[in-house]
Amino acid sequence: MHIKPLLLSMLAAVALPALADNEKIITALSPFGVSNMQISDSPIAGLKTVLSDQGIFYASEDGQYFLQGSLVQITPEGPVDLSNVVLIDKLNAMADNMIIYPAKEEKYVVNVFTDITCPYCIRLHEHMAEYNERGITVRYLAFPRAGAESKVADQMEAIWLAEDKQAALNEAKSKSGKSLLKPVKSKIVAEQFNIGVQFGVAGTPAIVLSNGTLIEGYRQPNELLSILESTIKAK
């Protein structure tokens, strides 16, 4: 008996229905402008997770039903939002292109989508030392509210490409978003903006915790620490 051909034929028999189901979902969602779909099983039987450029959706296997929103698991420790867990690895892979303000005695890491022209982003930045003193490392990602093709995006690109990124960002934040660097075109800001959209970021600042939880808006240092202590296990 030829084991290898038999095994391949068995795998194909299993894979084809899965591909067919995925095609039904793609066909159903494409007319609504949903693009670049990556489809995988969700924690709920019969429901698929759809990761797209427009965010995360959940769809029935036959493509007849879909929804968008938080997927929450009830655990002994309390409710856990699973919606953005699928994006965490993708976000962490961008760490080399983030502007990071590390805490000396790091307990928590937060990812902050920021805009250099956003007043509340500037307020958050003014308290950076206080976040760091509380053991919170802040990792900045660019999220120009005017979009990835805006003038602000080009200004932020120059900051993210600067030799001393912290100094360039500090200068822009201290001057209400006015950067002295020459605006440039590149891909870093667009990539960070796009993953912000996938996380559901609608404004800035937006804070993503290490478990994928999205917190919208400015949080004072003590307030953010309290949220982290009740949500994330300290290092």
Automatic annotation (TrEMBL):
InterPro entries: DiS-bond_Isoase_DsbC/G (IPR033954), DiS-bond_isomerase_DsbC/G_N (IPR018950), DiS-bond_isomerase_DsbC/G_N_sf (IPR009094), Thiol:disulfide_interchange (IPR051470), Thioredoxin-like_fold (IPR012336), Thioredoxin-like_sf (IPR036249)
Subcellular location: Periplasm
Signal peptide span: 1-20
Keyword RNA-binding: no
UniProt keyword Oxidoreductase, yes or no: no
Keywords: Disulfide bond, Periplasm, Redox-active center, Signal
GO cellular component, one term: periplasmic space
Start and end residues of each Disulphide bond isomerase DsbC/G N-terminal domain: 18-75
Domain Thioredoxin-like fold: 103-228
Membership in a protein family: Belongs to the thioredoxin family. DsbC subfamily.
Described purpose of this protein according to its UniProt entry: Required for disulfide bond formation in some periplasmic proteins. Acts by transferring its disulfide bond to other proteins and is reduced in the process.
Protein name: Thiol:disulfide interchange protein
Species this protein is from: Suttonella indologenes
